[in-house]
Predict the 3D structure of the following.
Amino acid sequence: IDPHGNVVHLTSYTDAIDPEPPKTEAEIEIDALNVPGDAQAAFDEAFVRLEPILGASDAARIKSHLEVTEEQTLEQRSLVLGRELDKDQRKGVYMVTNNFLPTRVTCETVDGQLRFIRRLPKDKAPSDKRGQRSKWAHAGDYCHFVMQKENQDSMDILQQIARTLKCNARVFGMAGTKDKRGITVQKCSAFRIAHDRLIWASRKLRGGRLGNFSYGEKEIKLGELGGNQFTIILRHVQGADAVSLEPVLLGIRNTGFINYFGMQRFGTQSISSHTIGISVLKSDWRRIIDLILCPRIGERDDVAKARNVWDTTRDPKATLELLPRRAALAEHSVLQHFVKSGSTNNCSAAFACIPRNLRLMYVHAYQSFIWNHAVSERIRVFGTKGAVPGDLVIVASDFSDNAHAKSKAPEEETRVVPVLVTEENASDYSIYDVVLPLPGWDVRYPEHQVKNVYEELMAKDGLSPSGLAKHPLKEYRLAGAYRHFLIKPRDFMYEWMRYNDDALPLARSDSDAIEGKHDPESIEFGQNVALKLKFDLPPSAYATMLLRELMRTETAAGYQTQLSNNTESKE
């Protein structure tokens, strides 16, 4: 969902909104000159325009000088007026010579006097000093596009495009990273890459398609969204039916769910992202690299083999050769630095080679880890009936206000000042207004026993809320943010379906719609039962947490790793 509340869809692979770029003042001024297309006519017109600026005598001298055709030395080809001109006069002369006589004369100012150098026929016309920028003829520096992907990470698709177009992946921006397991659609941008090149690259993508191209002045950045719309199919529903699940579904619709950060925030491997985040906040660069590259339980065989080579040899080149690129972006970035530098000693520089969004993900995961524990304590002590004295509240008037992360990452958000709940004002607020802070140096903490969770948990990791302002690198100085701990989905709908074939989709993707495929329908006497859910959530809210309320499924890292590996083994 974009910041204006519109659901983003891929509706065409080739359509592009590509209006003529607005003309600059200089271009408008040049157009007004009406330079003749005929070279001789332009030559004659030049001196009609120079005469009011320089006078008839000097204009005639310059014309006679430029009409000479024989080969001469540079000194012989140069004509100096012999008098100084003011700024407006010089500007007028340059305007005429640059546009009417670009192949006949070079004009320059020397000690306040104009010098006219007759150009030789073999001389090239003056080049545009702006270089390649002059060739960009679109209304904005950024090509915006919609990206649909299936069973791929967002960064993997952008990396594929970068390799295909032989450009740096940093030219791409996106509003948010989407789940790998699923078909997702999101807005992206590319700096000075035309839509026709992106269309060509899209045809070569594995697991993705691009479309709906347009141009804009600004990059699309992480967090620039109004929320996310989900369509989720739960297949092989057993042990429950429409009657027994109705109270649970209505409860989710009317009451909502706890706004925990989902397992995607922490990673699905045995070494959690927040564990690496602790070392980042402590500037323990060697420890960070060891955690990123060390063997992990439950990984794919090819990745595990590469990690074991590193663990036993510390040979970055040998490890890199075995590591599948699409499976380990951070690992690739670190190992490539080691190979290029010829040393494994500078771990800080190696970590800096990881894309910034991924580096920040580690510290954000640590904030989320602390926040989840604080929420559990808040519910354990005070329940979910309403605001209590000592709580912090920010009135949530709409679902998109439930998470204050609409435009920036958590540590960069606009500061929102919460209100402290007291005995006197507690009845003015609902449980949906209660927020808890993600730890940082610029947030307020609740004034009851939940505050102790932040201090005690961080102390175990050798950290403190106030210490988050003291990191030697600015990007890891976390200011903090606020997040509502109970939210309700918007437009929550559900439908029971019957089907026979697990291989057939039960929801139509955007690419299916483009290709004219119909929306799948329930089969009256199908063998299997599925529950189809559709709802909107605010930015940074996790559909997996809503599903946990419904399904009571396992969210441990090991189980999620197994799901990921099962998905990849089917590709």
